[in-house]
Amino acid sequence: MPREILIIDDTPEDRAVFRRCLQAETDYANTFVEAETGEEGLQRYFDHRPDCVLLDYQMPDMNGVEVLEALREASPFGVFPIVLLTGVASQSVALQAMKLGAQDYLIKGQAGPEEVARAVRNAMDRTSMLTILDEQRRNLEAKNAELERRNAELDQFAYVASHDLKAPLRGIATIANWIHEDLGAQLTPEIAGQLKRLSGRVSRMEGLIDGLLQYARVGRVLVPPERVDVGALIQETIDLLAAPKTFHFVIGPGMPAIVAERLRLQQVFLNLIGNGVKHHHRQDGQITIASEDLGSFYQFSVADDGPGIEPQYHQKIFTIFQTLLARDKMENTGIGLSLVKKIVEEQGGQVIVESPPSGGTTFRFTWPKSSRKDTHANVE
């Protein structure tokens, strides 16, 4: 394999020694470029771009570290396949050279052919690896910057779209209410029913827009972690629901306090508990919320005594826009459970559903004890 080596050394005898060391190699067909001064060496380097450089530390015009500094100034992000040659074992010089991009150093008079060949191979291998890593880092930084830019654009678009889409919906709802208020007594049952359905469609569209925005923001919009009393959070969530007064909620004992993204955890409970109320076939149903310690995670369960979910829907219900009942029978966006799944999995957890033939449905999901964004937070 052909390989070009640049030797920068003001002593012809030393250059000859290193040439002979490398000519003894059988795996490479080495060719050599030589320079007697640092200035000449820099010119040779930029003219030839050699595979490796043997660079003497002591030269009349500039030392090896100054050559490295000049290379670094010309190529701020470059990685150089350079082996520094020194007459004495100076760790400070070697360390300074390595910081500037040299890959290895040798002490003159103590390095034989094998050591020289190994140093050259290592310098070339390290340079190749570091160049690849540096290129990957630059690509990643560029992609991250582009992703941040697109996320910002998407957030702005989502906000504008939400505002622009909701404005006509509010207008439709207002007109429908005016018609009902002003002409209620004159409306036929059919027209009154159509107005009611129209209002329902408007509410569902508003819910759909809000749900899509929430779904799109998971994993992109940062929610700071905080200490959360899960029992209090569940009670607060229940209070937000417009459940019948005859409906029963049971919060199991021993609910933990964790460090979590409060809003995300509440969205999960709000959707699971809300679904249990919405799809229940009785006004006096019961939902039981419990927790279990699984080590680094807690498992929470939301169980109802409703009609249950048939097995063929156990996976489908987590798909966005999937609903069990026709929207004419029950207003539903089909986003809630897909949002639950996305939030839980973003936290590193899992969500499953269990529904035996005898009826009732239990949703179980796992949640880390400490937010992945703040694993050192204190929960005292």
From TrEMBL:
<dbReference type="InterPro" id="IPR050351">
    <property type="entry name" value="BphY/WalK/GraS-like"/>
</dbReference>
<dbReference type="Pfam" id="PF02518">
    <property type="entry name" value="HATPase_c"/>
</dbReference>
<keyword id="KW-0808">Transferase</keyword>
<keyword id="KW-0902">Two-component regulatory system</keyword>
<dbReference type="GO" id="GO:0007234">
    <property type="term" value="P:osmosensory signaling via phosphorelay pathway"/>
</dbReference>
<dbReference type="GO" id="GO:0000155">
    <property type="term" value="F:phosphorelay sensor kinase activity"/>
</dbReference>
<dbReference type="InterPro" id="IPR001789">
    <property type="entry name" value="Sig_transdc_resp-reg_receiver"/>
</dbReference>
<dbReference type="InterPro" id="IPR003594">
    <property type="entry name" value="HATPase_dom"/>
</dbReference>
<dbReference type="GO" id="GO:0030295">
    <property type="term" value="F:protein kinase activator activity"/>
</dbReference>
<dbReference type="InterPro" id="IPR003661">
    <property type="entry name" value="HisK_dim/P_dom"/>
</dbReference>
<keyword id="KW-0597">Phosphoprotein</keyword>
<dbReference type="InterPro" id="IPR004358">
    <property type="entry name" value="Sig_transdc_His_kin-like_C"/>
</dbReference>
<dbReference type="InterPro" id="IPR011006">
    <property type="entry name" value="CheY-like_superfamily"/>
</dbReference>
<protein>
    <recommendedName>
        <fullName>histidine kinase</fullName>
        <ecNumber>2.7.13.3</ecNumber>
    </recommendedName>
</protein>
<dbReference type="InterPro" id="IPR036890">
    <property type="entry name" value="HATPase_C_sf"/>
</dbReference>
<dbReference type="Pfam" id="PF00512">
    <property type="entry name" value="HisKA"/>
</dbReference>
<dbReference type="GO" id="GO:0000156">
    <property type="term" value="F:phosphorelay response regulator activity"/>
</dbReference>
<dbReference type="Pfam" id="PF00072">
    <property type="entry name" value="Response_reg"/>
</dbReference>
<dbReference type="InterPro" id="IPR005467">
    <property type="entry name" value="His_kinase_dom"/>
</dbReference>
<keyword id="KW-0418">Kinase</keyword>
